[in-house]
Design goal:
By secondary structure, this protein is of the alpha/beta class. The chain has a single domain, classed as Rossmann fold (3-Layer(aba) Sandwich), CATH 3.40.50. It is about 45% helix and about 15% strand. Strand 1, helix 1 and strand 2 form a beta-alpha-beta unit. The protein is globular, with a radius of gyration of 15 Å.
Length: about 180
Amino acid sequence: MVRKICVFCGSNKPNNNNEIENEVKTLGKLLIDKKIDLVYGGAKIGLMGIIADTILLGGGYVTGIIPRILSKKEIINEDVSKLIIVETMHERKKKMYDISDAFIVLPGGIGTLEEFSEILTWKILGIKNKPIFVLNLNGYYDFLLNQFQVMKENNFLYSDIYKEITIIKNIKELEKLI
């Protein structure tokens, strides 16, 4: 049973793409409806801020985890239900992984990819075995998913990554899975 879900996403907003922002808000409403707590990176800007604000405004519970070094750059969301300030990025990720029951990868940048790569690696190695959902809205992650296929064809993958993750095209698909 999923009680806490960790969302990896950007601390920026996409350029002229209201569809991504609307899907993030839809996700927030879904988590409220299902009484699932949000665990995220702790910023009040970008997609991170949108998901947190949506859940907080709807009466949901939000845990933000942010390293001290990012507290100024990403502007800490001090309105969250629980704020955890850690010293390092690794400590942030470990805390996110430890307290979450599942993970959702939304559009984001290199930090989002890094978080996704680490939790996927941990799942493949058997360190953590929790569901990972990738929102591939409008093909946002098509190139990354194609790269996984190239890795597989070149014998650099331990397992079939497509069995380790669930690719969704919109939040409506996720509703049936959590």
